[in-house]
Amino acid sequence: MAGDYVDIHSHLLPGIDDGAKTIKKTAKLAKEFQDLGISQFVTTPHISHYVWNNSEQDILSKLSETQFLLKEENINLPFKAAAEYFIDDWFENHLKTKNLLTLKDNYILVEISYLSPPFNLYKIIFDIQLAGYIPVLAHPERYLYFHKNFTEYEKLKKAGCLFQLNLLAVVGYYGGEISKTAELLLKKGMYDFTGTDVHHNNHIESLHQKIKIDETNLKEVIANNQFFKF
After folding, report:
1. Strand 134-138 and strand 107-111: pairing?
2. Domains of the chain: which residue ranges?
3. pLDDT tens across 179-215, in order?
4. How far apart are CA 146 and CA 33, in angstroms?
5. Minimal CA–CA distance to 81: which of 14, 163, 144?
6. For domain 5-228, which CATH number applies: 3.20.20.140, 3.30.280.10, 2.30.280.20, 1.10.510.10?
7. Per-residue model confidence (pLDDT) at position 185
């Protein structure tokens, strides 16, 4: 990262999900972000009703509190908050009633189960767009059930889903199979944006590792994140 990277996927707000547990840990991760060459970031706590039952208001309150505390620590890295929405039946209803937290404009970060895709995934993607949002699917390379059925990735793109690559995949953090899928999706030009998906210090340490895949197209997809500059 050349010092001007805008990260759009992380879990730095303290005590709100499976990311940073305390403000001290948030401060440490934010400093590490600066060292990595991140100039701004949008942090994205989970909104997964049955696991991390955060509301948009909870996240915005925690954001204000965290921005204040980091300023007191002399950490001036600009950041905003959105959410990583888990697509399920609850989210389907939530979509009809709420103003969602966006990465920018009408772009929302979404994820699906690691075990199996929602049976009505394409209907929900359509409903997201009908509600005026553009879905950005977090880490498509991590959904193992698509690896043997690559046409599903093509269907998702055709359905209007944008793809966000986890940079941890390119350094082999999740293992060889996920790296290989990330490489293939990159090769086919299917990624739109990237994100760190940093939750804790182990993730930061891994981001300093050597890239384990063919880097063709990677720089371009990293540069696309300039779109989210604020």
Report:
1. parallel
2. 5-228
3. 999 999 999 999 999 999 999 999 999 999 999 999 9
4. 31
5. 14
6. 3.20.20.140
7. 97
Instruction: Give per-residue pLDDT as tens, 108-154.
Output: 999 999 999 999 999 999 999 999 999 999 999 999 999 999 999 99
**In this structure, what token pair is assigned to residue 230?**
């604020």
- Say if residue 2's pLDDT is above 70: no
Name, in order, each residue with C-beta under 8 angstroms of 46's C-beta and a sequence gap of 6 or more. 11, 17, 18, 52, 54, 83, 84, 86
Average pLDDT over the chain, rounded to an integer: 96
Q: What distance in Å separates the CA atoms of residue 123 and residue 144, rounded to the nearest whole number?
A: 21
What count of other Cβ atoms lies within 10 Å of the Cβ of residue 40? Answer: 18
